Amino acid sequence: MLKAGVLGAGHLGKIHLRLLNQSDKYELVGFYDADETNAKKVAEEFGYTYFNSIDALLDAVDMVDIVTPTLSHYDCAKRAIAKGKHIFIEKPITNTVEEAEHIRELLAQHDIRGQVGHVERFNPAFIAVKDNIKNPMFIETHRLAEFNPRGTDVPVVLDLMIHDIDIILSVVKSKVKNVSASGVSVISETPDIANARIAFENGCVANLTASRISLKNMRKSRFFQKDAYISVDFLEKKCEVVKMKDAPEHPGDFDMVLQNAEGIKKQIYFDNPEITNNNAILDELETFAHAITTNSKPIVTLHDGTEALRIATMIVEQL
Q1: I need a surface site. Which of 9, 185, 226, 284 has the fewest CB within 10 A?
Q2: What is the pLDDT of residues 215-246, one digit of tens each?
Q3: Dihedral, CA atoms, 103, 104, 107, 111, nearest 10 degrees?
């Protein structure tokens, strides 16, 4: 079992602590939190071992899970890498692209593993359909959330939209050509609602909307490609795959057939895969353990996290 430690015991940090503690891939050694009052409260309530310094924790573990505020990701990662520790780092990977690139360089120099916490990659609805997403040419995403003061220290693009940016970059096998965006600050000092358009060199276009001032929560993505439409509901963990094929010469009474202006007939059919429920955060942590023990490539690499941040930063700059 890998000895694991957690940096940060806030809302998400406590979730990571609980899951690492129950995982059979890790031995949870303890945690560090800069807020000593909160740290002692967490230690007393849950029984986790509290370390009074980052270095003390790092010296006791094989892998560190960085769940601190984004501004401190870079410093925490540097210190962990300097001690030869594998790093799992929550999204966004760092505060700036330059910091992310430096972390990648350091990781390569020390020959250790790193993974970024883009948890939607492990959403069971996305896992169920990702193999059906082949060369999408138009993508539409909506990630809407009710207002919550937590996270409003960064633009909604880095708080919410970056999830969809990562998903899109994982399925579109082409370089980004250009980005355009607009947004509005309603309650916070940074934009609370934003819309972005990402155009790729292969002609694919992605239209993304993110809001943290909505009346209801929504996390939906739609992928359009030749002869197929794929919908993923990340919130409800549901998916839909609608495909088209050449219509039979003699369609059945219940077959859905469309005919275009050229007279070509297509049959519409549903090919919805089975969804296997999981705990996405536990899965991302345990697949990282597998990458460490087998010396293999993590599912969400630091390169992936850096590119998602790069596009998110381009969007923020246009806001």
Answers
A1: 226
A2: 999 999 999 999 899 999 999 999 999 887 67
A3: -170
- Asked whether residue 233 falls in the same domain as residue 216, the answer is yes
Q: What is the mean pLDDT of residues 200-206?
A: 98
- Provide the phi-psi class of 173: left if phi over 0, else alpha when psi is between -120 and 50, else beta: beta
Residue 60 Cα to chain centre, angstroms: 28
38/126 same-domain check: no
Q: 88 with 134, same domain?
A: no
Cα separation of 194 and 184, whole Å?
A: 7
Q: Does an H or E element contain 281, and which? A: helix 280-294
Task: Identify the CATH number of the domain in which residue 53 sits.
Answer: 3.40.50.720
CA dist 288 and 65 (Å) reads 11
Nearest to 91 by CA among 64, 73, 78: 73
Pair (131, 254) in one structural domain:
yes
pLDDT tens-digit readout, 249-285: 676 666 676 667 666 777 777 888 899 999 999 999 9
Q: Tell me the torsion sign for CA atoms 293, 121, 124, 217.
A: positive
Does residue 241 share a domain with residue 212?
Answer: yes
Helices (H) and strands (E) in the chain, counts: 10, 14
Q: Are 221 and 232 in contact (CB under 8 A)?
A: yes
Task: Tell me: do 125 and 242 sit in the same domain.
Answer: yes
Which secondary structure element, helix H or strand E, spans residue 208, and what is its range?
A: strand 205-211
Tell me how far the alpha carbon of residue 32 is from its chain's centroid. 24
Q: Which of 112, 133, 157 is the last residue of a domain?
A: 112
In the sheet that holds 2-7, the strands lie side by side as: 26-32, 2-7, 63-66, 86-90, 114-117
Structural domain of residue 180, as residue ranges? 121-275+312-318
Cα radius of gyration rounded to whole Å, the chain: 22
pTM over 0.85: yes
Residues 146 and 171 in one domain: yes
What is the Cβ-side half-sphere exposure of residue 102, based on CA atoms within 13 angstroms? 14
